[in-house]
Structures are given as structure tokens and as C-alpha cells.
Amino acid sequence: MAAPGFLAIGSGPAGVSAAETFRRRHPHIPVRILSADPALPYAKPPLSKEFLGGGHTNLDLHSAGWFARHNIDLRLGVTVERIDVDAQEVVTVGGARYPYWHLVLASGSAAVPLAVPGGQSAQPLRSFADAVALKMAARFGDTAVVIGGGLIGCETASCLAGLGLATTLVIPEAAPLLRRFGVDVGKRVAEMLADAGTRVLTSTTVDAIDDNGVTLMTGERVDADVIVAATGVRPDIRLATRAGLATDRGRVVVDERMRTSVRNIYAAGDIAIAHNVAAGRRVVSEHWRDAAQQGLVAGLTAAGAAAAWDKIPGYSGVIGAFTLKYRGWGSDYDSSDLIERADGFSATYRLGDKVVGTLTVTANPAS
Length: 367
Prior knowledge:
Elements: E1 6-9, H1 13-25, E2 31-35, H2 64-69, E3 72-76, E4 80-84, E5 89-92, E6 97-99, E7 102-105, E8 109-111, H3 128-139, E9 143-147, H4 151-162, E10 166-170, H5 178-195, E11 198-201, E12 206-210, E13 213-216, E14 221-223, E15 226-229, E16 233-235, H6 238-242, E17 247-248, E18 251-254, E19 265-267, E20 272-276, E21 281-284, H7 288-302, E22 314-319, E23 322-328, E24 335-341, E25 344-351, E26 354-363
Parallel strand pairs: 1-2, 1-7, 2-3, 7-19, 9-10, 9-15, 10-11, 18-20
Antiparallel strand pairs: 4-5, 5-6, 8-16, 12-13, 13-14, 17-18, 20-21, 22-23, 23-26, 24-25, 25-26
Helix pairs in contact: 1-7
């Protein structure tokens, strides 16, 4: 059996950040990462942008040699079946047992299946393997349909259009990014997508998928060589639920130090609903930078250092010729103001008299 020490489940930004942070504080305690993904830890944000667009992007968070030099035992292609809380051990599907003194759950999210006939044939974009498959399909395709009007769907659609595919974005809402940013920004995003060569179909859904394209709820057929499902994600809290950790709204409840309801177990990233000091309440954050920050806090807490999640969440994206940058607490607001600028526009979101989010949309210099 392996020696006990620090253990992270998941090789995304939260798990890797937690492990390397703990290692810096404790150079001699065993540190291990278990990942179901067979690939070296990589950055996901470029998958729907630079990587899909054909750019030469280095996605690796660290090389295999880096993990070896820092004495971090990285186990790839390992699926964890359960956590034995009483014994403080993690059990894999293969029966291997890994004891821990401190455990960070950073298992991320899984794509929500598209529940329509033929939905399983739509290509998701959640992993490096997904991105490679989509990139190859786009190379040999002429037409594409992207289903879903969130950030990943919008980025993917504009990128496929930029590659020369006749691309259609199908969304159930009245405008792209509507649930997060409201109708005014959504209309502007639709214009950005159209300028990038994407046909945007709003207030409709896909009823069926076949080898030649999709059928919409209206009966309209849209031909497509490439079909992408960007229909959302669901936090993977199965291990946490089986272990008896407290959950809320489908996520693991943690305090500002990333501590769960069970001693010596922490959670970070997509699966966590965490108390944010700056917000003064629990906040859900599903983006890369915030997951890494939460992982850092979890690693420091496990190492015995004082730390708290007090950063304002934020993320960025690229749609067509524009870069979007957002900072704030998500979609919980009751009023917004859109301000035109020479190089784009900005929006401010308020809940009562308090600013809870800001968005800036700026034309890229190359455009």
C-alpha cells in the first residue's frame, strides 16, 4: 500500500494547484494526484479557442518531468470508486487503496447528455480527446451545427466559422449568453457571432440528430457534417455523495478555507459551492482561474497555513473578433446598464444598489 500523505482526486486546475501548493509547504510528505483522464494535466480554456482554431498551443500545465522533479506522484487513467472516510483511504475501481492524511476532491464536471434521438452522436467539448476529435472532424467537414448558447457554444461556433465551415448555432433562449448577461448583451453577442460568419437560430431546440444533420422543433432541417453539443455540464459529486459529504444544489458545501463537512477532506473547482469572503455568502464558480485559486486555498489549508477564498470570481472568452472579460458573482442581479465604448461596450450588473458584476467586451487589435 502507498504511504499516506496528501491526495488530490482530479488533474484539473483545482487538483494540480492544491497539490503543488501543498508540496511547496511540505517538501517531504507524499503528494499524489489520481486522475481518470489519461492525458497529462492540461488547460481547458484554449480547447474552444486557440487549439480548435488551429493555433500551436501548449496546453500542458506541467511536463511529466516537472511532476517527477517535484516528487508529485501523478497517476493517470485511474478511476476512483469510493472514499473510505473511516479508514481515510481512497479505493479505485481496480481495488487499489490509497491512504491519505488530507484529501482534495477536484473531480470537475461532466457534459450533460443531449436527450434527443441521436443525441449521443453529437460531439461534446469537455476534454483534450474531445477537442482532438472535433478538430479532425472540422478539418474534413463543410458544415457545422453547435447546440447551446453558453460561452463554450458561442466560442466553438465562432471558431468553426473562422475555419471556413458554414456554422449554425442553435439555442433555446432568445439570445446567446442570455441567462448570464441579459437580453441587451445577448443581442450584441448575436451580432458578433453573425459578423464572424455564424448563423444564429434562437428560441428553438433540436428534436433529433442523424448522420446528415439536425431536425429542429419547428421541423426545419439543418444539414451538418459536424455537430457539437455544448448543452451544459453537471458537477461530478458522486464520490462526495457516497462519502456522506454535505451538498447543496448539486455541489459540495465548503467554507472559505475549502473544508467540507468531513474532517481532512476539502473540495475545490466545479464541484464546490464555497463561501467567498468578498461576497459574504456561498458562491458557485465554474471557471478555470477560480478553480486554481480554490485549489491553492485548499492546499494551503491542508498544509496548516491560514488561507481563505476572498478573490472576486472572473473569466474571459473570445467570440469572433471580440474578447469578453467578466468579474462578479454570476447571474443573480436585478438591473443592468450597457455603456457603448469606441472599441466595444461594457455592462454593469446590480442587485439592489450593490454592483455584483462587470462585463467588458473589447475588439481584438488584429480585427
